[in-house]
Amino acid sequence: MAYSGVRVERDKDSGVAVVTLDRPGRHNAVDLAMAEELTAVWREFRFDDTVRAVVVTGAGGKAFCTGIDRSAVVPQPSSPYSVDDPLVRIGPKANDLWKPVIAAVRGLACGGAFYLLGEAEFLIAAEDAVFFDPHTSYGMVSAYESVYMAMRMPFGEVARTALMGTAERLSARRAYETGLVSELTPPGEEVPAAVRCAEVIASYPTGAVQGTVRAVWSAKDAVRAQALAHAPQLVTLGNLPPERQAELFAARRAGFRLR
């Protein structure tokens, strides 16, 4: 298939595919078209036996992903018990793909980026990568994002990252220290490092690899599913109206603390 916001490169010899979020002019923010394309990519990989391991990254060097594109218009149902979130199916596990996925992160990774990072097996980051969650600063509940990060980071680190909003950013070094990132590289070396790992994994028997991926995730499935089930109601109850969110976004302050 041809995609506009996502670039897919397959190496049939190694069995590795590289998925690149390809909207660098928008810091790889996810619009509705890209969300649909990511869903299609993961579901396509389920049937492509030449793909045995995947690397996901962002184009341009300035950002891995900055979450949903703020220009995207997402109509919401009137029921307070329902939320339409176009990001809930942009990750591999949400699409029943149990082939290993490694995230290669450079530059900004914030907000909705955690939907993708939260469903990767592990993260490799450039030393200039930074992570933050802006939701609370703009009157939005960090629900899905916090749940995904709580599966990877100590409770206090998740709470601080979510609650401090745009005032703080987590450096690649601190992300490595907390366990969010498994390896740091010089800028520009994060994708080659991830590909090297993917090539090793792809060289192993497929059934054993996918079974291991499924076993690792089964350790957290029950807790994760239960936590995510609360997310729509928390978002509905806690989010400010969109127009008020826009006002806070327009009035945002420059500057932040990097830790």
How far apart are the termini?
Answer: 41 Å
What summary fits the major beta sheet? Answer: 6 strands, mixed
Quaternary organisation of the protein chains = single chain
Which CATH first-tier class would you pick? Alpha Beta
CATH architecture: Alpha-Beta Complex
CATH topology: 2-enoyl-CoA Hydratase, Chain A, domain 1
Total number of domains? 1
Strand order of the largest sheet: 1-2-3-5-7-10
Helix content: 25-40%
Proportion in β-strands = 15-25%
- Count of runs of 4 or more consecutive helical residues: 8
Rg computed from alpha carbons, rounded to a whole number of angstroms: 18 Å
Number of strands: 11
CATH homologous superfamily title = 2-enoyl-CoA Hydratase, Chain A, domain 1
Organism: Streptomyces wuyuanensis
Protein name: Enoyl-CoA hydratase/carnithine racemase
GO molecular function: catalytic activity
InterPro entries: ClpP/crotonase-like_dom_sf, Enoyl-CoA_hydra/iso
Features:
single chain; 259 residues; alpha/beta; 2-enoyl-CoA Hydratase, Chain A, domain 1; 5-stranded mixed beta sheet; 8 helices; 38% helix; globular
Describe the model.
This protein has 259 residues and is of the alpha/beta class. It has a single domain, classed as 2-enoyl-CoA Hydratase, Chain A, domain 1, CATH 3.90.226. The chain contains eight helices and eleven strands. It has helices spanning 32-45, 113-117, 144-150, 155-164, 172-178, 190-202, 206-238, 242-250; strands at 6-11, 16-21, 53-58, 63-65, 101-105, 108-110, 122-126, 130-132, 168-171, 183-185, 257-258. A six-stranded mixed beta sheet has the order 1-2-3-5-7-10, with helices on both faces. The protein has a five-stranded mixed beta sheet with strand order 4-6-8-9-11. α1 (32-45) links the parallel β2 and β3. The chain starts with 5 loop residues before the first strand and ends with a strand. The mean pLDDT is 93.
